[in-house]
Amino acid sequence: MITDLSKSERETLKAVYRHTKDGAEAHTGDVAETLGVTPGTVTATVKRLADRGLVDHRPYHGVTFTPQGRRTAVALIRRHRIVERFLADMLGYSWNEADRLAPTFEHDLPDEVEERIFRALNRPTTCPHGFPIPAPEEDDIPAMPPLYELEAGDHAEVALPSSTDPEVVRFLEELGVRPGVMVEVREKHPFDGPLVVRVDGQDRTLGERIARHIYVRKTDGALGEKASSAKAGGRKAARKNGGAATNETGGASAAQKEGTNV
Fold first, then answer.
1. Domain segments of the chain: what residues?
2. Exposed / middle / buried, residue 23 (Cβ in 10 Å: 0-12, 13-18, 19+)
3. Closest CA to 62 of 12, 15, 27
4. What DSSP designation does 24 have?
5. Do domains 7-65 and 147-222 have the same CATH topology?
6. For strand 215-219 and strand 155-159, is the pairing parallel, antiparallel, or unpaired?
7. Choices 1.10.238.10, 1.10.10.10, 3.40.50.2300, 1.20.1080.10: CATH for 7-65
8. Does the domain formed by 147-222 have CATH 2.30.30.90?
9. Is the pLDDT of residue 82 over 90?
10. Considering 15, 62, 80, 126, which has the largest number of Cβ atoms within 10 A of its Cβ?
């Protein structure tokens, strides 16, 4: 991974990845909204990235990655998610707090330290939000569909972006729907009707709008249970190393965007 990028360049690469996941060009206005900066600031940063061969930028059109730029963006996302996992599992921060704090020091982290943290955490497969941690040298991250795209009988593991409304987070927490939990779709009512999902042995009903803001990784039912057990073991290992895992789901600022944890 290129090591002499500025913090703004790194954050811009991560945001561009978010907006090009479906193969489309990323528009500077969308990237600016994700980062909470002006479009002019993004345009200037994108120009520097283009000069370094990491992106292609067509004025008044959009931004796309070069092969090297995509690999760099995925490596940056990998680092962010590992640091989030460290903050949650070892230091006891909630998943939203981990997302907010990770950028304050992830950019100065040497590659060697990143790898040691990853090993100390027992090589986790997901960040605290439930999104996958890509392998080194990967140039893409598997997409996660919304829960509402599943059908009756499907099993899946839940992921929630940091942009989730705090009131929605609290509502889902009351239902037991939190990052990393396994769910089974029991019923899907027609015409954009609600979903009935089983969570921790209880049937819960979710409206279509809410279910579209929950992301999932489809699993085999038995394999999903094994994966959850393995993650619990990883959190226990973290506690043995002096950390304190947490199940908190503290609210996220409305200004936070999913791009910070993709």
1. 7-65, 147-222
2. exposed
3. 27
4. P
5. no
6. antiparallel
7. 1.10.10.10
8. yes
9. yes
10. 15
- Contact at 8 Å (CB) between 70 and 18? no
pLDDT computed for residue 38 by the predictor: 95
3-state secondary structure of 188: strand
CA angle 141–144–149, rounded 5-degree value = 155
- Report the share of the chain in percent with pLDDT over 70: 84
pTM of the model: 0.81
Contact 161, 252 (CB under 8 A): no
- Cα-flanking dihedrals φ and ψ of residue 49, to 5°? -65, -35
Q: Tokens 């890509």 label which residue?
A: 134
Question: Over 80: is that where the pLDDT of 236 sits?
Answer: no
Q: 104-136 pLDDT, tens per residue? A: 989 989 999 999 999 999 999 999 999 999 999
Residue-wise pLDDT tens digits, 138-148: 999 988 999 99
* Residue 169 neighbours by CB distance under 10 Å: 21
C-alpha dihedral, 21 to 182 to 196 to 257, nearest 10°: -40
Q: Is 251 exposed, middle or buried (0-12, 13-18, 19+ CB in 10 A)?
A: middle
